[in-house]
User: What shape does this take?
Amino acid sequence: MPDKEPKSADLSIGDIYDKLSAAPVPPRKDKPKKTEEFKEIEDTASENRIRAACIEVSGDIEYKSALFFKFHPVVAGIKAFKFEAPIFTDAPLLAEAVASRIIDENLKYERAAEARVFKSAEPAVKKVLLNPNIICVSEHPKADEFAQKYNVSKAVAGFMIYKDEIKNSIVIISKDASALLSICRLAERGLRPYLILGFPAGLNTQKEAKKYLADADLGTPLITMPQTKGGAEVAAACFVELIKINEDNV
Assistant: This one.
C-alpha cells in the first residue's frame, strides 16, 4: 500500500468529532439489494454459525441472542471476498487473533481429513484456509505524527490517512471506540465499506460507539455486539467464520 499524505479537502478531524446526532448527513438514495448470485447464502443458518463461533471463543451464551446483524452482512462478506476487498483494522492484536484462529481451523480440517481416511475408501479432501492480508491502520508510518497533530488516537489517524480506500472494504474494529465512530462518520459521508465488524469491548465509549453503529442509518452491512462485550478474539472468530462460509460456497 503506497504511503499517502492525509487529504483535508473532503473530511477533517472536525467532521469526525462534531456532534454525531446533530451533524447534517446527505440523504441516502441507494439501499442494499438482494441478488440472485448470493441468495442461497443469505439465511439464518449462516448467521447462526457466526453466533456459535463467538460463543465458542468467548464461552458466553449471550452472543446467541445479543449479536446484532444488519443489512445481510454474510452476503456482503461474500461479495467483499469475491472482489478481493482490502481489509482494515484498528489494532495489530486483531490480525494476530485471526492468524491464530485460522491455524486452529486448519488443524481441525487436517484431523477430520485423517479420520475420513480410515472410515472411507474415498480420498480425504483437505481444506486449507489462507491467512488474509489485514492492514492495521494504526501502524501506518504517518499515523503517530497525524495523531499528535490532531490529538486523536493512532487508529483514528490511520483511518483518516486511508479514508479514500475505506469505500468497498472490510473494516474490523476490535478495540478503539473512537475509530469505530470515525468509520461511522465516513460511511455517513458516502465512504461506505462493504462490511463493518464492530467489537470494541468496554463500559463507556465502547458501548456507545457500538450502539451508534447499530442504530445509525449508514446503509452499510454490519455485525456488532451492542452490549459491553467484544474484543479481538470475538471479532477474529466472527471474521474467520465468514471466511469459512465463503470457502464453503466457492
